[in-house]
Amino acid sequence: MPTTVNAYIAPAADRPLEPATIERRDLGPDDVAIDIAYSGICHSDIHTARNEWNGTRFPVVPGHEIAGTVAAVGENVTRHAVGDRVGVGCFVDSCRECEPCRLGEEQYCERGNTGTYNSIGRDGEPTHGGYSSSIVVDENYVCRIPEGIALDVAAPLLCAGITLYSPLRHWDAGPGKKVAIIGLGGLGHVGVKIAHALGAEVTVLSQSLKKMEDGLRLGADHYYATSDPQTFRDLRGRFDLILNTVSANLDIGKYLNMLALDGTLVELGLPEHPIEVPAGALIGKRRSFSGSMIGGIAQTQEMLDFCAEHGIGAEIEVISADQINEAYDRVVASDVRYRFVIDTATL
């Protein structure tokens, strides 16, 4: 029989989240049942709960930054055991047959991966995420959280961490590379830590200098305010790689001109309006404009192991479940340093 668990649901786009109970499926032979300890709040949760991207299946339980411990395993499970510290990220299944899946790039599954929430699972039922006391997930989509990371600071790594780690690795950030990160928020601050640990020279490009002390403490070598026009003159042709973590529509041409020969600007956010890319800014120095989203399961595990080795976790503010709606408003107002994490014991 399905298990009834406590959760916080978004009942409709124009209503606040509220406590409720949901059903989790029976433990299958390949499944892992996880007692959730912490669930991070991602801006994607807010977009979904408020139907800002359209297509939300209400009621929905958000949350795809999940950290907890294994409570039970199916008879065929070999990767995880009861008591293991584990995490679940942005998706809980994929077709497993297409070329991206076979290459370990399940995030780009040609048939569409199964989101941790607001998706439909193989059983035909809606998926619900981490704002709940437990979850059942196929073992192939569960990652091990090393002992070197506390579960609360590990939770945001399952989305924010891999979102930055994946492009940093793909574009070979490391010694001798100059990397800039646009925005020092929930995504950007983790990117600064990871890029620094990889050995790159790291610059933060932020609207103002108000977070400069934080940026330098987290590992940035340089910090510039993009509200100052001189910044774009001083940094022209400087960087090998720029990661844009903000969702606002920026003047992309100004940032492309900061790239060196063969440099790449990678879009990680989802702006409201289409992005205008001036061809001249690309052609002049054989620059590239690209995009990236999270990473596959194997790379997510690699990221967690890397973060444990280098003592990297998210900068967090732990909240109780009854503070979720307030936290949503604070995220929208950029009033968080740098990631809210729900203590699910308070559900």
From TrEMBL:
Enoyl reductase (ER) domain segment(s): 12-342
GO molecular function per UniProt: oxidoreductase activity
EC number: 1.1.1.2
InterPro entries: ADH-like_C, ADH-like_N, ADH_Zn_CS, CAD-like, ER, GroES-like_sf, NAD(P)-bd_dom_sf
Catalytically driven reaction(s): a primary alcohol + NADP(+) = an aldehyde + NADPH + H(+)
EC top class named in words: oxidoreductase
The keyword Zinc is assigned to this record: yes
UniProt keywords, alphabetically: Metal-binding, Oxidoreductase, Zinc
Source organism superkingdom: Bacteria
Similarity comment: Belongs to the zinc-containing alcohol dehydrogenase family.
Name this polypeptide is given: alcohol dehydrogenase (NADP(+))
Organism: Gordonia westfalica
